[in-house]
Amino acid sequence: MNAVSKPDPSGAEPSPAVRAMIDRLIGFPTVSRDSNLDLIEWVRDYLQSHGAKIRLTQDATGKKANLFATLGDSPKPGLILSGHTDVVPVDGQNWDSDPFRVTERDGKLFARGSADMKGFIGIILAQAPKFVAALNSNRLDAPLHYALSYDEEVGCLGVRGLIRDLEDNGIRPAGCVVGEPTSMQPIIAHKGTHRFRCAVHGREAHSSYVTRGVNAIEYAARLVVYIRQIADRLAQIEKRDYGFTVPYSTLSTGLIRGGIAANVVPKDCEFHFDMRTLPQASPDALYEEIRTYAEVLAREMQAIDPQSGIDLVWASQTAGLAASETDAIVQWAMQLSNNSTVGKVSYGTEAGLFQKMGVPTVICGPGDIAEAHRPNEFVALEQLAQCEAFMNRILDTGYAPA
Questions:
Q1: Alpha-carbon distance 46 to 366, whole Å?
Q2: 32 plus 45 within the same structural domain
C-alpha cells in the first residue's frame, strides 16, 4: 500500500505561473487563529476575472470564509479540487528563513503551508486559464469547482458550512480530489478524528484533611487511565487494517491541567483526549463506554460533595474516508498520477466529509505530510511538477469518471 510516486517525465520543476501563485498565497499568513479573508477575497477576484461563479460561506464572526467557485456553465456534475487555506502557527519554531516568504534551496520551497497545502492550491489556481480555455472549446464538458476552506487544522470546521450550502442548493459534483500532501499517491482511506474535553469539578481542602475534599486531579487520573485501558484493548484485539501505519484505532490524552499547590486538594482538573478510529470502528460505542465510567466516578464524588461532577464534551469529530481501489475516481486518479497502487493514512482530512455528502472522493497532492507543521516545512519542486502534470492531464482525460 505504500508506493513511491514515480518521477514525472514532463520535468522536475513547476511552471513560472505556479511558482508565482504559490509565492502569492504563502504571503497571506492565514494561521487558523487569524482571519483568512485577505486570501479568500484575493482568490475570489482572481477567479471572477476568469469568469468563475463564486459562493462564500462565513463563520459566525464574519472574519473567516470558505470559497466555492465554479468554472463552466454545463449542467453536468463536475469535479471539486479541494484545499484548506489555514496553516498551523510558527510560534516557538526555529525557522532558517521567513516562514511567510518562499525560500528556494536544494530543489525545495521552504515556507509555512508550502506542503500543507498552498502548494496544491497554487497549482489549481494557476491552472484556471487552461481550464477556462478547455471549457470554452468544449474540450471539457463539465464544470470545474474550487473548494477552499478555513479552520481545517482545528477540526475540519469550516468546510462543514461549505458542504451544507452545497446540499441546501442541490449542488452534487461528480467527484472530489482533496490535495493534501500524499507524495502524489492516491489515498483511499483515513481514520476518523475525534477530540474530547473533560472537566472534573471537586472540592478544595487542606491536604492534611483529604477526606474533606474531592480530589479533581485524582478522579481525572482515574478516567485517563480508563481511557488508556480502552486504547490498550483496541491495540490487542481490534481487527487490524494493515494499510494504516498504526493498524488499529487509538486513544490518547494530550493535555491536562489542574491544581494550585501541592498542599491543596485540587478543586478542578481539565484534560483533553484524542480518538482516531478505523473506518469500520464505532466512535459512538467507545464514547459511550467512557461516558458510562465517568458517571460511575461522578456518583462516587457526589457522595462526598453533591456539587462535584464530571463534564465530558465531544468537542469535534471528522468522518473517516473509506473508498475502494476499484472506485472510478480512484482508478482515474491512479491513471493521472502514474501510480499503480494506493495508500491509507492515519491523519484526518476533509475528504471523509465530502464522501459523507455522497461525492466520490480521493486524496492526492504534492509534498510529504511528514514535512507539514514542522519548522522549515518544504515541498519539493519535483512534487509540484508532478501535481501540475496531473492537472494538465485532466485536459486530455476529462474529470467525470463514470
A1: 23
A2: yes
Q: Check: CB of residue 243 under 8 Å from CB of residue 266.
A: no
Q: Which domain-ending residue is among 292, 318, 344?
A: 318
Q: Give the domain CATH number at 56.
A: 3.40.630.10
pLDDT, residue 4, reads 39
Instruction: Tell me the backbone φ, ψ of residue 232, rounded to 5 degrees.
Output: -65, -40
Q: Tell me the CATH number at 244.
A: 3.30.70.360
SS3 labels along 156-225: CCHHHHHHHHHHHCCCCCCEEEECCCECCCCEEEECEEEEEEEEEECECEEHHHHHHCECHHHHHHHHHH
Start-to-end Cα distance in the chain: 25
132, pLDDT greater than 50: yes
The model carries a pTM of 0.88
Cα–Cα distances in angstroms (integers) from residue 342 to residues 3, 325, 385, 402, in the given order: 7, 7, 20, 19
- Residues belonging to the active site: 86, 152
One domain, residues 340 and 381: yes
Mean pLDDT of 269-285: 95
- Asked if residue 326 and residue 219 are part of one domain, the reply reads no
Q: How far is Cα 253 from Cα 162, in angstroms, rounded to an integer?
A: 31
Q: 220-224 contacts: CB < 8 A, separation 24 or more?
A: 220/256, 220/258, 220/269, 220/270, 220/271, 222/297, 223/198, 223/271, 223/290, 223/293, 223/294, 223/297, 223/310, 224/253, 224/256, 224/271, 224/273
Structural domain count of the chain: 2
Contacts of 92 (CB under 8 A, 6+ apart): none
- Domain housing 292: 192-318
Residues in Cβ contact with 28 at an 8 Å cutoff, skipping those fewer than 6 apart: 36, 38, 39, 42, 85, 100
Nearest to 399 by CA among 346, 360, 358, 344: 360
Other beta carbons within 10 Å of 356: 14
**Cell numbers that stand for 218 in this block:** 485524582
Q: Are residues 60 and 167 both part of a single domain?
A: yes
The rounded mean pLDDT for the chain is: 94
Tens digits of per-residue pLDDT, 16-71? 999 999 999 999 999 999 999 999 999 999 999 999 999 999 999 999 999 999 99
| 184 plus 328 within the same structural domain | yes
Spatial CA neighbour of 380 closest among 8, 129, 130: 8
- β-strands 65-71, 53-58: how paired? antiparallel
For residue 158, being part of any structural domain is answered with yes
- CB atoms under 10 Å from CB of 396, counted, come to 9
